[in-house]
Write a structure and sequence with these properties.
Largest sheet: none
CATH topology: Na+/H+ antiporter like fold
Number of strands: 0
Shape: globular
Number of domains: 1
Strand content: under 5%
CATH class: Mainly Alpha
Structural class: mainly alpha
Radius of gyration: 20 Å
Oligomer: single chain
Length: 335
């Protein structure tokens, strides 16, 4: 009976994936062939992200099976985003330096302040601050009309800083006794695959294959729909992980939810405030607030108490609620 249930879940997951692909193809054709309904298309886009989250919550068992395709979706989204970047515009600014300083020092401060009361809560809160900018943040930044080049520059810096800082913090916490080089390699390998590799491929395509570059630039809006599919899967996976925990952890799970929410809102607010001083509000907010939660969850599960990974898991929900609201407001103002 268990085997039949697993088979049914697998069939439902496969069916869900096929339906998502067909919807994706339909929407692309809808945008290309139905120009007279462009206004309706914009309205649908405004609500697509919250709809994706609801679908993920309702069908969390089914969509969790598809979590293995999320890195491929992110990779494709980044390639389509990076392909439109003017590489001459990428540079490190004072805004980036202030944001990196917050990422490094605030993560250590919150850990040492909370640790005397609860070590798991301290680890979960710390990883939400330490986590680098999401590899998909340029996609949202583009949707909001922000400076993608500036956000990409900070994303590179925040990920590289993480490689040097994270092993020191994890060694200090001492939950796992891991060598520095091994820790740095494990983190940098994931960063390279999800961020540096599509950046490098986009650079080569722009330089060596202008025809392909022009074609991909024309189709770069597809990244929005790929992000919606990824959001559905990640939301379902997060809920599935939370429900799999025992009742004895409900109190700490609640605290992790509250603290991750507070950290999320504060980081978006602070990032936008820093960015506003440098005429870069959107990039500042997304750079500091939108985190690479996939990497953060993995780091928490490997280097910290696994229960602490609930914090970045819930951060997925909070940051995407913020992103959904921002995209909805932006598209409503444009419409």
């Amino acid at each position: 009976m268990v085997q039949n249930l697993q088979l049914n879940n697998h069939n439902i997951s496969t069916l869900f994936l096929l339906i998502s692909i067909h919807i994706f193809i339909f929407v692309v054709r809808f945008n290309n062939d139905m120009d007279n309904l462009e206004g309706l298309s914009k309205k649908i886009k405004s609500y697509m992200m919250p709809i994706a989250m609801v679908i993920g919550f309702v069908f969390y068992q089914q969509v969790s099976v598809l979590s293995f395709i999320v890195p491929y979706l992110i990779f494709t989204m980044l390639l389509l985003t990076f392909i439109k970047i003017s590489w001459r515009d990428i540079h490190i600014s004072k805004m980036h330096l202030w944001m990196v300083l917050f990422q490094v020092f605030a993560s250590g401060i919150v850990y040492y302040l909370i640790n005397p009361y609860n070590s798991i809560l301290a680890q979960g809160t710390m990883i939400c601050v330490l986590a680098p900018t999401a590899t998909s943040a340029p996609v949202i930044t583009k949707m909001l009309g922000g400076n993608v080049e500036s956000l990409t520059s900070y994303s590179l810096v925040s990920n590289l800083v993480l490689v040097a800082v994270a092993p020191l913090l994890f060694s200090e916490i001492g939950f796992h006794n891991l060598p520095f080089l091994d820790s740095a390699w494990q983190i940098s390998r994931r960063v390279a695959l999800l961020l540096i590799l599509p950046l490098f491929i986009a650079f080569l395509i722009n330089r060596l294959m202008p025809v392909v570059s022009n074609f991909l630039q024309e189709k770069s809006d597809i990244s929005f729909y790929l992000w919606s599919i990824a959001l559905t899967i990640v939301s379902g996976r997060t809920l599935n992980f939370i429900l799999s925990q025992g009742e004895s952890n409900y109190k700490i799970e609640f605290l992790l939810a509250v603290f991750s929410l507070l950290v999320c809102v504060f980081q978006f607010w602070l990032g936008r405030k820093i960015g506003r001083k440098y005429q870069n509000t959107v990039a500042g907010g997304q750079g500091l607030g939108q985190k690479n939660t996939i990497l953060a969850i993995w780091m928490a599960q490997v280097y910290l108490n696994p229960i602490a990974s609930i914090a970045p898991g819930l951060y997925v929900i909070w940051q995407n609620i913020v992103n959904s609201w921002q995209v909805w407001r932006s598209r409503r103002n444009i419409g």
